[in-house]
Every structure is written in structure tokens, then in C-alpha cells.
Design brief:
Length: 421
Amino acid sequence: MVATAATSSFFPVPSPPGDAKSSKVGSGSASLGGIKSKSASSGALQVKANAQAPPKINGSPVGLTASVETAKKEDVVSSPAPRTFINQLPDWSMLLAAITTMFLAAEKQWMMLDWKPKRADMLIDPFGIGRIVQDGLVFSQNFSIRSYEIGADRTASIETLMNHLQETALNHVKTAGLLGDGFGSTPEMSKRNLIWVVTRMQILVDRYPTWGDVVHVDTWVSASGKNGMRRDWLVRDAKTGETLTRASSLWVMMNKVTRRLSKIPEDVRGEIEPYFLNSDPVVNEDSTKLPKLDDMTADYIRKGLTPRWNDLDVNQHVNNVKYIGWILESAPPPILESHELSAITLEYRRECGRDSVLQSLTAVSEAGIGNLGGPGKVECQHLLRHEDGAEIVRGRTEWRPKHANNFGMMGGQMPADESGA
């Protein structure tokens, strides 16, 4: 029925032979089953369909006279342009043209973006998400130095660099699929209430980045003895590849409930050993013993340091980055004004809780005690302790005059996998 109606919209349908009496030859109109076609004065073809049969009363049709009179009146009035199945459809051409224009503009903008790395061997990650490289053994991530991460000398602080190191370490564990419900703990470690704690860290800074710089951080882990792990970092300028910072740290496991050190369980070892990279430390271990300071040997003492709630991490102890800030609280102001920190070694001996009250002690080396604001290098010894004298962190710092960096001095390189994998 639909096909018949559509066809009759374009071609007049002749009446069957049985209806010859209702057709007038040469009259220009024909009737078929309630469908009337006629030629308007303009020569256009008009088709009208009556979908309802005439009503009947007692078997006799009614209203036929009115229909005939109406039809006669319509014969006199000129009809508008015909409305057919085709010309009643909406015009989609304008909408299709608009969509095409939008796609072409978006494609042009996309092609103008440069997503290709500047160097094939360096990951350029503008979003700072990071990824695992070197067969899954090295994690790489970019960081943009923000305005709130720089200090009075317009360069990033040592705490900023330490935060970048910590962030990449955690992201490495997470991206590798080893993150349990603890802070850097694997699933097997979480089952046993084990966490990682740092025991020693060494950092060498060749140059501090400034606001707007993008730094590229690579980090990897290696075995350290039977029950330890070493994590190394290499920080470079993402644009030039220049080495900025090298850092190496030693970690052991501690029971989160008993707060005692623990051996590495075999199930945990099975989780982490596939990610160990057989390489030398990026920073040669400093075997020089760090001396213990006291009130007699310290040149500067800062008392009354207390942790804030925001200084605690998810393991409910003070974040190790915070210790550096407390150590520098007792550094002589002339050193902070005229020198910059070039190297730091830290030995973590005891954790610090929320209710601790701390003291920071600093002793300046004999060579630098009379040259705090001079052009030479200065070395300091540090101790962070509880008020009762219990040691928390021992440290040593080396300082160089500002703007006297020896660029390229360290020549840090990415580690080569010596495991043969």
C-alpha cells in the first residue's frame, strides 16, 4: 500500500476496466478507490487521498452530497504546490555541511600539535603521567617547576626535588601493578602489615631548575644485601638532557603494627625481584661516618620543632622530606644567603610521631666557620633529635657559592641492564 501511494504521487494510476463508467475520457481527472487526481490550472499534478470510507446508516451512505459539493469548490480554487513523500523530508544538507566543517577544523588543529619526542631515547611526557621503559625496569616521569616550588633565589628548593623523587617512586610501584593498600607497599606486604622505610639517602645537585623548567626523572630499584632494596634517581633537564640531580637511597621493611624491622618474606621477594635492575648505584656510597652532635659540639641549635598534622603520611609517621626542612632550620643564615646546597647525606635512625618535640643541631666545619659568607665551599654536620636526646636523623651537607655551578660535573647516565635480560 505504501509503494502504491508513493508511485501514484508521481504517475496517475489508470482505473481498472470495471470502473469505466466512473471515468470521463478527456476530462483530466480519474477516481480510484477514493483517490482523485486532477490537473491544476498551473499544470501541476495534485493527488488527494481519502483514508476514511463514507459513513453509512442502515446500509445507506450519508454525507455524499456534501463531499461532492466540496470537491466542486476545490476544482474552482487553484491548488498549491504538491506535497509528496519526498519533498516533505527535512533538508539535511546544511547540517551535514556544518558537521563536515567542524571535523575538518578539528583535524587541522590536531595536525598542528607536535606530539613527537625531541629525542628518540628520551620520553617527552607533557602531561607528567609517566611510564615504564627499559623492559619494565625503569620508570620515567616529567615535572614542570611551579611558581610555588621556588624559593627566594628563584630556583626550586631541595624539598621540591625530594618530593619529585618520592612521587616517582610511588608511581613506579603503582604503574607496575604492585601497589597494595599501603604507602608503596605491595599486596603481599599489605597482608603482613609491612611497609618500606628509608635508612639512608644521598643527593648530589649539579644545578637547581627554575620556574617553568621541565625536569625528567628516571628511577629504578636494585637489591641491597639480603633484606634491603636500593632505589636510584636521575634527574635531567627535559629540554637539553643536562643532568641536574642524582640520588640514591637504601630501604628496609618495617612492621607497621610493632614498628620493628623485618626480613623480606619469600612471597614479597617474589613480587619485587622481577623489577630489580642489576646496576651500580648512581651515587657512590659515602662510607664516611656521620658524627653524633650534642650541645657542646653544635654551633647552632634550634629547639621547639613540632610536627603538624599535614606533616604525617598515610603510615602515620612524619614524611622523610620534612626532616630536611627541620635540619636546615639550624643552618647559619649567612650560608643560606650566599651558598646553595650541593650535596646532602642523611641517616634515618628513628621515626618521628605527631606528638614529638624536636631539636635541630648544626656544626660548621673548621674550614668554613670563618668563611660563612665567603666564596669558598662549606661543609656542615647535622642532627635532628627528640627533646630527650633520642636521635632521629644524622646528616651532612655540602654548600657551594651561588651561581658557581660546575655544569656537567657529574655526567650522570641512565643505567644499563647488566642482568642480560
